[in-house]
């Protein structure tokens, strides 16, 4: 018998009642007694399952219901309806028992104590999560080594750069050896080097510990670098759930052929209807084509017959474009 | 439970260490706090040296009230500071962080900050209290001493309860916090003087709604050996500190309602 999925989410729905604001002191007074509301449907029926060890990217435009989903899954918010069973528990019903087994990193909010050295935050988290001393020592040493934190441990958090802090945040969220990790915009605002370091770490973590990771991000490079599976949410429901390749294929089967020619050379008209020039930058010319209609060999044959090609390669269109198309399809 | 107490002590240690990162600032704030409250008491003292007594209350008796209220308030301000500044946490979304940790929300909020500079107020109030007890000319029996400590504790719990209520309100509206603030700071001001000088509606407010007078004024009568001009039964003077603790426990129940509201609305 196959083991049960680690995360089961069924038909989650959540509607917010947003109070219309009133002004002034009397308005504030009246605001407690009776309020007028308008309703915002944040989730209309979200369902998915995750197996242990999956690393899934959860993406969508602002206001699509991403953070509402994460809040429900991490026990912060109670849904109006729907079922949710994670690590055998209902997050909002057994909050304390449940959250001890998960880790949460909010990219824009720190979980460390601002004025204290990093190691003090770690020690306090040990007590908050009741990590046995022996296990804590081991866990800390491993994380310090993997994330290169040794020189940072005695530095007050307020003196860390954003990239250094994010590495410490990751360690802080893993000290208690959670089985499920939520990463909410873990690379936001980071420089290129830190982004790569964070991504490498997440990839290794997922591989070595079989830790299940749910990653929300606006940075499509994160998704491309890390996630085999992607879920796209829009207008409160899941629009797409599958592999990155399938997402590409379903939204846009287009591929790109990039050729390098002398920059001043005029380009010939392409005789193939399913291929067109989309961009020309210096030596590089980007030609988009539909591989179902035009075989790459046919296209390259025609181009090399009329142009002195210096180089050429075929790539997938960047994920940003795919997502933008997907949003366009669903009119988000 | 022991585990929670241990964690609370860790929180306090961490918070104190964080404040000691800026020792000069801490020293100046503490001295400032001491000076401000000292000036406040000097004003009371000036009033009494001019007018003698206030409806049969002499300066040492009023100083007893003053010391009791201010010690209780200083302790509550220091220990329940997390609830006092909670509205900032809610607005910044930091309550989410508390909810994803496997500990009670009350323990985590109260552990957010232990504001050490309140020892300024505490020290000043303690001096006033010690002087008052010495000047009262009443023998401080063991019973009276215990009652004194108990009612200061009761007052501390009461003020802490007010901070909890104030924090709870911020789950709904940050604009209306001033109302609770008025009750808290108004309570401190009013509690410095004997309840009998106030109008009945005001008296009833601090006896039955926010029972500050019940945990402060009534036991002070027993400690100073005065008869109650308002005629409350004597046993109430001895039972009243419990009321502060009850008030605090009730405020925690209200807090749970606030937390439930937050987790169902997310704001």
Give a description of the structure.
The complex is a heterodimer of chains A (332) and B (267). In chain A, 35% of the residues lie in helices and 27% in strands. Chain A contains eleven helices and 13 strands. Chain A has helices spanning 24-33, 66-73, 95-99, 118-128, 133-147, 162-174, 192-209, 220-226, 244-251, 296-306, 319-329; strands at 7-19, 37-50, 55-59, 81-86, 102-106, 180-184, 212-216, 229-234, 237-243, 255-260, 275-281, 284-289, 311-315. In chain A, the strands form three sheets. Chain A has a six-stranded mixed beta sheet, with helices on both faces. A four-stranded antiparallel beta sheet of chain A has the order 11-12-10-13, with no helix packed on it. A three-stranded antiparallel beta sheet of chain A has the order 2-1-4, covered by helices on one side. In chain A, strand 11 and strand 12 (284-289) form a beta hairpin. In chain A, helix 5 runs antiparallel to helix 6 (162-174). Chain B is mainly alpha-helical and 267 residues long. Chain B has one domain. Helices cover 78% and strands 0% of the residues of chain B. The mean pLDDT of chain B is 90. Classes of the chains: A alpha/beta (332), B mainly alpha (267).
Blueprint of the fold:
The complex is a heterodimer of chains A (332) and B (267).
Chain A: E1 7-19, H1 24-33, E2 37-50, E3 55-59, H2 66-73, E4 81-86, H3 95-99, E5 102-106, H4 118-128, H5 133-147, H6 162-174, E6 180-184, H7 192-209, E7 212-216, H8 220-226, E8 229-234, E9 237-243, H9 244-251, E10 255-260, E11 275-281, E12 284-289, H10 296-306, E13 311-315, H11 319-329
Parallel strand pairs in A: 3-7, 3-8, 5-6, 6-7
Antiparallel strand pairs in A: 1-2, 1-4, 8-9, 10-12, 10-13, 11-12
Helix pairs in contact in A: 5-6, 6-7
Chain B: H1 2-19, H2 23-51, H3 59-79, H4 81-84, H5 86-92, H6 94-99, H7 105-110, H8 119-136, H9 142-169, H10 177-191, H11 200-209, H12 212-224, H13 234-265
